[in-house]
Specification:
The protein has four helices and 15 strands. It is α+β, with helices and mostly antiparallel strands. The protein has one domain: Jelly Rolls. Bound molecules: 2-oxoglutaric acid and fe (ii) ion (FE2).
């Protein structure tokens, strides 16, 4: 059994200093067994749970949003334990050990998880995650490393052609993006079989990586990579609430 990795004393210790405010990277967020358990759960989901998109496939938990609104429903236990619990146990600052990354979000916890799966050569077009969510995304990566490209915008609002920052996400790592990095920048994953030109000058989280030695000649071959992105959807409606109104009449 590989041990469950310790939680950092504070997110301040794992801040990606080269990024705009704020990005955090924890190379060892879950253990090998936890990674395997999660991949088994994801594979065991009924086939209709998967939405096949042009260049990746997607599961949405507990359900899709309708007009930026989530129908209130608890996340299944396997998505809460260990990831969500550990996210809330990670102090945002040493000054306030009770604070965590969702302390100031509407529900003080994530209520929504997207599971994206990419084969080598697949990716996601640069985009922003939008206003449905509180501006915090916690991404746990499983199976393979890949690079997340971060783009700025030009004065006329168009996207810059070249990424301004590159973040390498290793298997079992956690990446948190918040604030300006969430609201003002776009992120995407290139459709390549291999990430290239990786080094201390090109990878923003280089000093926080677990295994930079696996990168040979600046290259890393991709295999199947699955990501879980935890967020807090701002608007939540209760189905029971509506029935209660009907019940009264
Ligand atoms: O798979 C990832 O790391 C990114 C996914 C993403 O950007 C999204 O679901 O909005
Ligand atoms: Fe996204």
């Amino acid at each position: 059994m590989s041990p469950v990795p310790p939680i950092p004393t504070s997110l301040e210790d794992v801040r990606i200093k080269l990024l705009p405010a704020n990005g955090y990277y924890i190379a060892d967020f879950i253990s090998l067994e936890e990674e395997e358990g999660l991949l088994n759960k994801i594979e065991a989901a009924p086939k209709p749970r998967w939405k096949q998109l042009a260049h990746r496939r997607l599961q949405t938990w507990p359900s899709d949003l309708t007009r930026d609104t989530l129908l209130q429903c608890l996340l299944p236990k396997w998505l809460v334990e260990p990831i969500a619990t550990r996210l809330l146990a990670c102090p945002a600052s040493t000054a306030d050990p009770q604070s965590h990354i969702f302390s100031t979000s509407p529900h003080a916890a994530p209520n929504h998880v997207l599971i994206n799966q990419y084969q080598p050569g697949e990716g996601i077009m640069p985009h922003k995650d939008g206003a449905a969510y509180h501006p915090v995304v916690c991404t746990v990566s499983l199976g393979s490393s890949l690079v997340l490209d971060v783009y700025g915008t030009n004065e006329d609002g168009t996207r810059e052609t070249e990424p301004r920052f590159r973040i390498l996400q290793e298997p079992r790592s956690l990446l948190i993006t918040t604030g300006e990095l969430y609201t003002d920048y776009l992120h995407g994953i290139a459709e390549v079989h291999e990430d290239v030109n990786l080094g201390p000058d090109t990878v923003s989280n280089w000093d926080l990586l677990r295994s930079p030695e696996l990168i040979v000649d600046g290259k890393l071959q991709r295999s199947t990579r699955t990501s879980l992105t935890y967020r807090d959807v701002k608007k939540v409606v209760k189905l029971g609430g509506k029935f209660a109104i009907f019940g009264k009449s």
